[in-house]
Amino acid sequence: MEKRALIIGASGIVGSNLADQLVTTGWHVSGLSRGRTAQPSAVEPVTADLTSPESVSRALAGRTFSHVFFAAWARQATEKDNIRVNGGMVRNVLDALGPAGGVSHAALVTGLKHYLGPFEAYATGAVPITPFREEQGRQPVENFYYEQEDRLFEAAERYGFGWSVHRPHTIIGFAVGNAMNMGVTLAVYATLCKAAGEPFVFPGSRAQWESLTDMTDARLLARHLEWAATSANARNEDFNVVNGDVFRWKWMWSRIADYFGVEAAPFDGETRPLEPRMQDAGPRWAGIAARFDLKEADLGRLASWWHTDADLGRPMEVLTDMTKSRKAGFLDYQSTPDAFFALFDRLKAERIIPR
């Protein structure tokens, strides 16, 4: 059977890397979005308002896809609105495609807030013991990830297709205009520090500085998604997905600083979030972009200070177990330092940051 994929969010950090992976391995790939952001050139664009069932139904009428991948979310002011909007997006797509019977598998990408709770209730409850394992289940809080899962499970049962849920940790990967992108944010931050002759100050908590942690390369996540979509062992299962190595930020921070040729400031135990410190960074970045002829002068399309602050400011260890994937047959691995350096090299090659 021809493998025809529909990616929701094909221009984002997850979706664009997934599209590259699937195209390379012979899939036909379409991307469903509002059409505001350019998608990879090999992706067939499909334009619709994902929050409107009528718009989605019209856009997908007469189209068939063997696999659907949800790799997007729309951030709202409250978690109740996140639940309504993001759960509705999953429902709208699957209700438009399900009745035709062509879908064999649908995959949903969420994340470790499955265990930590949503941003507005972040880690306020009894966070499970690390490393996080799939068997630990849901937290007793409202969480749009759970709503998305429930809409996926409901549609799979109604229309008879398989599903998988993927929970990456913080994702390292190339994307511009992405709302949650620590790798690009740190590259921009280091570039600003270098231009100003300022030290590279760790913005997070003592717990994150000292504890073990892990991350997820977007390319490895793409391979994990393809594996789960085509493996009987992964059908109707939820999976954590991380690189496979562990590190402490007290070790990683100086390596990132060395890459950019900036001084890593000694950590004194105080949390210094980026968002309030970067209020005047927009004009500074525009000046750097003009001086080095960079492609993107709008700092808001590159740096997500709030998201990096949330990740690095967490007051507890965040570490993920990959045993379930390993036992099911996914044995891939990615060095996290190499993932950072590969991203930084590409950002230079694409003229997003100075060479």
From TrEMBL:
Residues 65-354 form the PRISE-like Rossmann-fold domain. InterPro entries: NAD(P)-bd_dom_sf, PRISE-like_Rossmann-fold. Transmembrane segments: none annotated. It comes from the Bacteria. It holds the Pfam family PRISE. This is NAD-dependent dehydratase. It comes from Caballeronia glathei.
